[in-house]
Design brief:
Organism: Metabacillus lacus
Largest sheet: 5 strands, mixed
Shape: elongated
Subunit structure: The complex is composed of two ATP-binding proteins (PstB), two transmembrane proteins (PstC and PstA) and a solute-binding protein (PstS).
GO molecular function, one term: phosphate ion binding
Function: Involved in the system for phosphate transport across the cytoplasmic membrane. Part of the ABC transporter complex PstSACB involved in phosphate import.
Radius of gyration: 24 Å
Structural class: alpha/beta
Number of domains: 2
CATH superfamily of the largest domain: Periplasmic binding protein-like II
Protein name: Phosphate-binding protein
Helix content: 40-55%
Length: 339
């Protein structure tokens, strides 16, 4: 990862080596030690106004307002942590109110950036337009919604999308496992789902439930850790959330392979998500940014540049799948164009 901790160390080492080399040249250098130090400082420094060096970031001040998806949250928390090491005077805490909750704040200008696990809805875009908010959509990583059951569940080896729909839809026909498959136990199913403000809920609702209501018996929460604990503690539980949260808890959960469009049962992995084999539950993750914030707030501009330079590495570190490099480069060009 392009950590500024390592950058600072590299600059220090380069300075020591350069000074040693200069001293080794003796009188042939033609300059005093003071001149040599000045020349070395100029070589190590960035062009004035570029704002890309560690010294420039260290001088930045202000805040970056960020809220939104709990799924995208781990990536952005990692970005804020690393950026904070280079720009300690910039505050960039990550709010986790869900994709919908984040957009509610973003479209009225309360935040500079909104993390989202789905694309902005037409009505949200209309609200932004009515409030004079112009924005840019950036992709940051790939995710695969992971369907999980309790480790003691020994009857499910795979699920089709139709079985998921039968199970999760609120039509009263499937409340027990045996209602989905007569060979499964006659036990009540416990459902754990992201809350209605979650982009993960919206995506699952669209792709699996085809916009039908989710089972009323489901426990809904914007906090994915609540869902994880619920499934961990109930033999008859089933839940779904982002791939990162499954990876973090894979030793205490059983992930369910999903039958894809080709009729193959596929488990979510970095490879199956990136290749698209884990369909239809693979999806991109987004960050939406207020264009005016990029133009008028140096700290927002620098934060976004840092994010795009490091998002791939950080996404992998926290359990998601990086985008092709040209996607990040394309995002960088877009941000530069907003200045």
């Amino acid at each position: 990862m392009k950590s500024f901790k390592f950058l600072a160390l590299s600059i220090m080492i380069s300075s020591v080596l350069a000074f040693a080399a200069a001293c080794g040249n003796g009188d042939d250098s033609g300059s005093t030690p003071e001149q040599q130090n000045t020349e070395q400082a100029e070589e190590n420094g960035n062009t004035e106004g570029e704002g890309e060096g560690s010294d420039d970031l260290a001088q930045l001040e202000g805040e970056v307002g960020i809220d939104g998806s709990s799924t995208v949250g781990p990536i952005m928390e990692a970005v804020s942590e690393e950026f904070g090491a280079a720009a300690p005077n910039v505050k960039a805490p990550i709010g986790i109110s869900g994709t919908g909750g984040g957009f509610k704040r973003f479209v009225v200008g309360e935040t500079d950036m909104s993390n989202a696990s789905r694309e902005i809805k037409d009505e949200e875009a209309q609200q932004a337009e009515e409030n004079g908010i112009e924005y840019t959509e950036l992709e940051v990583a790939f995710d695969g919604i992971s369907v999980v059951v309790n480790q003691e569940n020994d009857w499910i080896e795979q699920l089709t999308i139709d079985e998921l729909k039968t199970m999760w839809i609120e039509d009263g026909t499937a409340t027990k496992w045996s209602d989905v498959n007569p060979e499964w136990p006659e036990e009540e199913i416990s459902f754990y789902s992201p809350g209605t403000d979650s982009g993960t809920y919206d995506y699952f609702n669209e792709v699996v439930l085809e916009d039908e209501p989710v089972a009323k018996a489901a426990t809904l929460s914007e906090d994915d850790n609540v869902l994880v604990k619920g499934v961990q503690g109930d033999k008859n539980a089933i839940g779904f959330f982002g791939y990162s949260y499954y990876l973090e808890n894979k030793d205490s959960l059983k992930v369910v392979p999903i039958v894809n469009e080709a009729g193959e049962a596929v488990e979510p992995t970095a490879e199956s998500i990136e290749s698209g084999d884990y369909n239809p539950l693979s999806r991109p993750l987004y960050v939406y940014v207020n264009n005016a914030s990029v133009k008028d707030k140096e700290q927002v501009y620098q934060y976004l540049k840092f994010m795009l330079e490091n998002a791939g590495d950080l996404a992998e570190e926290v359990g998601y799948v990086r985008l092709p490099e040209d996607k990040y480069n394309e995002g960088m060009e877009t941000i530069e164009g907003l200045r």
